[in-house]
Structure formats: structure tokens, C-alpha cells
Amino acid sequence: MESSKKKGRPVHPRSRANPLSALTFAWTLPMFWSGLRKELEEHELYEPLEEHSSGPLGDKFARLWEEEVARAGGKRTPSLLRVILKAYAGRCMLYGMVLLFMECGIRLAQPVFLGKLVDYYSPEKERIDSTEAYYYAGAVVLCSAINVFVVHPYMMAILHMGMKFRVACCSLIYRKSLRLSKTALGETTVGQVVNLLSNDVNRFDVAVIFVHYLWIGPLATIIITYLMWLEISWAAVVGVAFMLAFIPLQAYLGKRTSVLRLKTALRTDERVRLMNEILSGIQVIKMYTWEKPFADLVAKARKHEIKQIRATSYIRGVLTSFIMFTTRICLFCSILAYVLVNNVISARQVFVVTSFYNILRQTMTVFFPQGIAQVAEAAISIKRLQSFMLYEDTSKPVPGLADIQTSTKFKEGLESPVEREDLEEPAKLDLEKKTMEPRKSETLETLAEHKIAEGKGNGTTATLAPLESGEEDDQELSTRIEEDSRGVRLKHATAKWIVAHPENTLTDLSLSIKPGKLIAVIGPVGAGKSSLLHVLLRELPLQSGSVHIGGTVSYASQEPWLFAGSVRQNILFGQAMDRPRYNMVVRRCALDRDFSLFPQGDKTIVGERGVSLSGGQRARISLARAVYKRADIYLLDDPLSAVDAHVGRHLFESCVVGYLRNTTRVLVTHQLQFLRDVDQIIILKNGTIAAAGDFETLSASGLDFASLLARDEHAEEKPTSEQTPAADTEDSIISQGSFRKRQMSIHSVSSVDNLTATAPPEGGREEAEIRSAGAVSGKVYGAYLRASGHPLVVALMLFVAALAQLLGSGSDWWTSNWVNLEESTPLQATQMLDRNSTNPLELANHLEESLIDNVQYEGGLTRYDCIYIYTGMVVALVAISLLRSFMFFSMAMRASTRLHNKMFASITRAPMRFFHLNPSGRILNRFSKDMGAVDEVLPSALLDVLQIGLSLIGIVVVVAVVNYWLLVPTVAIGFVFYGLRIFYLASSRSIKRLEGLVVRCFHT
């Protein structure tokens, strides 16, 4: 918050990279070398590219959103999806064309070239010559090169697009949260906002990767089916049809995923909201030893959440299992259909068809269902973001609210109220001789006759303008506003917090405040004093009437608040340091004595709840923050209630009356002893102006106002040790012509002579969040596995996963063995069906003949034996793969539940010092973003690691069985890739950890 010079970051090298460097990502090498040598620090990271900056992206989306809201015009719901499409639809389709070229062009051409290359090794007479073989080999290499140099830049571009979506939406959410009205704040929660920023926006990063496969997948399927038809005729349709039969199931599972995603988000919102409330009241919870009841509440909320996550995880497990068996089943169906009509299938055909099925499997059973699921989840996130953006905010036009006109007085060189004292006459403490006339020529004596104190009055409003008589009309009001644009005026203002509520919060208020005046607003609890200030702040929308604010506004809220940072940062609140003004504000707010007692002076770190300071210190720091801001109008909501009479007198005389004397001040107070020194007094009751005027007029009105003041002044004369703080006075209402002061919830009182603060033992410095270094320890993985279940359960799951891979590799080996048997066995049928025949009658006749004819292979096996063995292996593979996924995700959900409960137990058992040094946002981020990663991201990543690792082992074993000499280059390549892994992870870990720290600071 405090302006200071920071180490400049280096310029992003991508902005200066030449085309070759951009294509090969050579510009990233310096960062990788630096990360390999040491842990990266935040200042070593590059400045973001201009196109990735939050400001421009947020401005663009904000402008498009405003245009969308304007176009909707209340006739339809504004669509955030339209905003996203309008911003990036063109670029997204351009990237889609690139992906189409790769998926339906280069990738499909490579198996064709490979098939031609395999023909060179065919024993048949029509094999190709060596020259053609070299051409096809070159074409295969060229396809791989194009794939490398196009797909990776494409992935970088598409990921950047998803990042732009995320950053822009985060900016929109942040801006919206700052503008939410009080009504909207009651409809949303901190947990919902945190969940939107930490979880929902992350869906865009993944959704953009798969969105194009929703239309490229079906197109690629048509092309692949045609190419396989050229190889194995109609048998290709059998396998493709079987693969396409999975799509309805995948679509259904994708739909269920979106439904479960919405339910999960709602459950997560509820849990995070509960956690936020617990963190806010942790001191009370510990004081009353309520840890166990609140732990039960959190455990119940977590149970409902994990139920939805578990269902989603099982669906993901089913979709992941498709990778294991879909290709093998489709290949089995095609080979079976082909050989049952007495065709001899060759190794070349199996090789080409398998390659096509692998492409089709990746496109239709991995990317296509992922596209359905991720786009569905992104749609849910967009819907949630859109609902948040449609909450009422203070930027929306309020009926009758005039545009705030900012005074240019301060912009003309008048630096502070103190510096202007030579240019303007000090405001007199005594009121001018002009008196005020209530509406409809009612006098104050008439108001007294209404018996307001007995509750029989109608709450007649009164204006503070020195009117001669009667009610001014619109023309007169317009003239007066024009004459004094820096004033504050309300005319017949009626407002309520809840629109559907029958009763108004404020009713028919009319008042006029001249510039430079000090106005005191008093009244019983619930009279509408704070609501009046919120109307002036545009936080409380008007139902009718008008309000005019002429000038800039500074506001001190009724409840003092601090954020995690130094005292100086809390006062400056992001403004530039003006040392003379800062020192003056500190003295006027009676903080200089406090600073001398703090370990680090005004650099002492205070918690976000200000728990290391007394109530009086918190109140004076909040007041200093409002006073330090240069403004024309100061709205002060009872800033004197948390201090004793001596300090209150100093704040009132030195700060409110003295330092701010040339500004307009609206002071809500219960300190009746100060009313003699204000220019105007407004008495509120039940949301209406019960009376208004200067002190002498109200004292003479018959409301017994003078006796109240006398009693309060008498209390003030007592010794400081016997004083009753304003914070501890009892509530009362206006009764029998008297007032009773409001009882405040703040009972902390400070004195000028005895100011103390408890600061962190470390001398007031904020405890930085610990950042891990180096590789992830094996203890972390061990802790996760222990949380997932008994070691025997973990071992059983690993055995099932290994068995699934064994069945997969075994089915691959059996396919090659079966093809070899087919090639080495002469045809048993007297007539062979031409493989290109498409006559349905001919196909049916020969299929019937071939089903009767069971071919005998060398070694004693028959064709039916091979079919039965392959069928058994594939069926077992399907069952074991599904069992593996269910077991794995069941363990993962158990680990998530236990880790969450353990973390919550550790938090509740932590001493209060932990909460003083760690902002609640940092803790809350552990329970939202980090816990979300443990629930959803980590299980999927671990299953991928397990599946890919076992597949790699299976491939190496199969290759070694065929030709063990191939292990030599395999081991060499393995060492190379292991080195690349170390080279990459050293930097990526550091950057990911730094990202986590920065994001947590943002959430804090």
C-alpha cells in the first residue's frame, strides 16, 4: 500500500524474441538456467507482456460488459458469454483453423506414410523400392517436425487466451466487489467471492484447450473412417461404430459432471463462508472453547461437499478408463469382422489401423469428452460469474441521484485545510442568526406539540437551509445548488436497504448543508444516522427524492477496521506520503504518543482485525485514514465513541473543529457535550428528521435538551479514572423530552496518558509466508498416501493398476501374435472374398460360411481360440480398469477429507499469535484454492502419472521381448529425458510457488 521503490523486474524477453526464438522457445532458456542454479525470487521474474496485464484486459472486459448491459436494457439478462465471444471469438477461431490443419491434415497423413513405409519390408512382390521408402520416411519425419513446431506454439497461444479470460474475469470480479451495494453484500458472501477468484476462473485455462475438439473431433472421425475403409473395407465401420457408441455415454457423463460441478461450487461456497466466519471470530471461539462444535459444523459442510466431489471423481475415473480399453476393443472388433469373412489381415493393415484408432481414441474418447466436461464446467462458472456481476452496485444510477460534482478547490493548490486558513475565514463556532423553518411552515414549538418523544409524531422532515418560510420548489432548489455547487442537499429522500421490505429506512428527508459547516447527527439506536451517511455515500439507493453531493468525500466508518500491514500503511491507504501533512494528522488524531510506544513506531505491523491494538487506537487510526485523505466533505460515523472523554475532547477540538474547519463535516455522535460547538444539529427518529437547528434553538424548543447536556457535562468533570466511556453508556430513546445515548459494542477505551499496544515479538514486522525450496519431499507423498488409507489398501490399488496395464500390454501382444498366425496360415476357404467387395448379399453369405469354418493355426490354436482369449483379455481389462479408477478416487477422496480435517484441527489449536501474524485471506486460501487442488487437480494428475508410467513400463517390456537390443537406446533416451525433467522442474516449481504466494496476497 505504501509507495516505495521496488526492485525493477527485467523486461519480458518474448517481446524482443526473433521468429526462430519464438518458435523454439529459446527465449526461456536464461530463466531455466537461473532456476537450475538457485531458487527464483519474485523480482527475478519478467514483467508481464502488455497484452497480459490485468489493467488493459480488465478495462476491455469492463467496457464490453457495460455495453452488453446497455444493449440488454432490462429486456433480457446480460450475457457474460457474449462479452467473452465478442472479445476473443475471432482469435479463437483462428487458433481452431490451426488445430484443424494439424488434427485432420498432418496427424492423419503420418499413419498413411508409415503404412507405405512398412510396405518396403513386406515379403510380397509388389513392395516399394528404396527410393520411395526414403521419400515416405522423410514425409514421416516432416510430419513430426511440423507437429513439434506448430502444436507447441499453438498450445502456448491457446493457454495464453485462457489466461486472458481468467485475468480479465478476476479484474471484473475485483472491481465489482469494490462497488457492491450494502444490499448486494447481504446477498453474497466472502466465501463466494474467494471461490470465484480461486476456483471458477481457473476453468477457462482448461476449457479453451478442448473447446475446438467439440467440432474437430466429429470431422476427424469421418476422415479417419474413410481412410480405414481403404485399408480393411467395411470392417472399419464396425470398430468406428463401437467407438462412437461411447459418445452418448460420454455426453451423459459430461452433463452429470456439469450438474455436480454446480452443486460442488455451492457446497464449497458454504464451507468457505463458514471458515471465514470462524476465522473472523476465532478469538471468541477460543475464549469459550467452542472448537469442537465448530469443527462438527465444518465437518458436516465438508461431508456434503466431498459427496459431490466424489461423484464427479468417479465420472472422471470412468472417462479416464476409456483410454485403456476403447482402442483395443475397436481394434478387436475390426480385426474380428475382417477375418471372419475369410480375409487375411496383414501386419501393415494392423499397424495403420491401430495408428488411426489411437488418433481417434485421443480425439474422441479423451479430448472430445474432456471438451464436453470442461466446457460444461466453464459454462457453469460463467453463469456464476454472470450472477455475481448482476448484483446491485453503487455505480448504477439511483432514482433522483444527481451526479456527484467534484470540487476543483483542492486542485487549485490548496493542499490541506490548514494551508487554506489564510485564504478563508475560519468557520465560526456560534451559529448565524438565521433560523430554520420546518416544512409547511411548522415551527419547532409545533414539533414539540406533536409529542415526538412519545412516538406519536409523523417524523416531519426539516431542511437545514435558512429558508424564510414554506417549502422551496424545484426552481429554487436548482438555483441554490447552482449558487453553491459544493453543498450537500437532500430533497424528499426516501430509502430502504431491502426493496421488498414494507418499511423505509429513511423517509422523506430534506436538508441542505452549506460548505464549511459542521453538522452533528444524533438520535437513538436505529434512528437511521448511519443510513443517512450511506445515502450520501451512494451505498444506500434512494426509492424516491434526490441527493446532491458537491465535492470529494472522505468517510470514517462506525466500526474501525484495519488491514494486515503497518500503521503507516493503514493511514496512507495507498496515497503518496506527504510528511508534513502526515505528521499533522498524527498529532491531531492523538497518535504520536502511541507511535512512541510501538516497537517499530508507525511501521509496526497490525493484524487485519486490529487485534494487537486497543479499541481506541483502532478508532483513531481509522479516523486518521479518513482525515489524511484530501476531501471537501468528511462523513464521520461516531468516531468518538471508542475513546474516553479526555481523548474525545482532543479529537473533537483539535481535529474535527480545528484541522478540518474549512471543510464540510457531518458528524454522527452520541457525545452531547460537543453539541454546543457545532453549526447545526439534526435529530433523527425512526428514519425521519424529528428536529433540526442550532443548539440554542433546540434547547429552547421544549425537548428538554439542555438537561441532557448538563448531565453529560457533569459526567465529563469526573476524574478520568471514574469516567463512564461513551462506549459503555446505556441505550435509551427520546422520551419525555430527553435522549439516551447508544450503547456501543466497542468497550475498549484508551487515554492520552496511557496508550499501549501489543505488537508481534519480532519487532512489528509481518511474518512472511514460508515458501518451500527444492524438490517436493518424499515425506509429502508419504503423508498423502497415509491419509488415503491403510498401506495394504494402497498396495492393493497399485496391484490392480499394474494388473490393468498387464492386461493392456498382453492384449497388444496377443493382437500381434494373432496377426502373425493369420499371415502364416493358408486360407481354409475354397473361395476368398475380395476385401474391397461391398455387396451386402455376398458379405452375408461369406460371413455365414466363415463362422462355420474354424481355421486351424500352427501350434494347435484355432481362430476361435484366439477370439476367445482376446475377448477374455479385453473384458477383464474393462473390469480391472474401472475397478482401478474407483479404488484410486476413493482413496483420493479419503485423503482429501482427512487432510482437510487435520488442517482445520491444526488451525483451531493454533495460538492467537498465529492469527495475528497471518491474515485470514492467507488461511482462507488454504481452505479454498489449495484444498480445491487437493480435491480435483491432484487426483487426476496422480492417476495420469500412474497410468502413463505403467504404460511406459509396459511398452518397454513389450519392446524388450521383441528385441532386447532396443533397450540400449531406450535407456539412453531415458537419461536424456530425466535430465530435461530436472532442468524444467527446477524453475517451474519456483515459479508455481511464487504464483501461489502472489495469488494468496491478492485474496488477502
TrEMBL record:
Keywords: ATP-binding, Membrane, Nucleotide-binding, Transmembrane, Transmembrane helix, Transport. InterPro entries: AAA+_ATPase (IPR003593), ABC1_TM_dom (IPR011527), ABC1_TM_sf (IPR036640), ABC_transporter-like_ATP-bd (IPR003439), ABC_transporter-like_CS (IPR017871), ABC_transporter_C-like (IPR050173), ABCC4_TMD1 (IPR030240), P-loop_NTPase (IPR027417). It comes from the Eukaryota. Residues 455-483 are annotated as: Disordered. PROSITE patterns: ABC_TM1F, ABC_TRANSPORTER_1, ABC_TRANSPORTER_2. It is found in: Membrane. GO terms for molecular function: ABC-type transporter activity; ATP binding; ATP hydrolysis activity. One of its GO terms (cellular component) is membrane. Residues 96-370, 795-995 form the ABC transmembrane type-1 domain. The chain crosses the membrane at residues 92-113, 133-156, 206-228, 234-253, 317-339, 867-893, 937-958, 964-984. Residues 488-711 form the ABC transporter domain. This is Uncharacterized protein. It comes from Diatraea saccharalis (sugarcane borer).
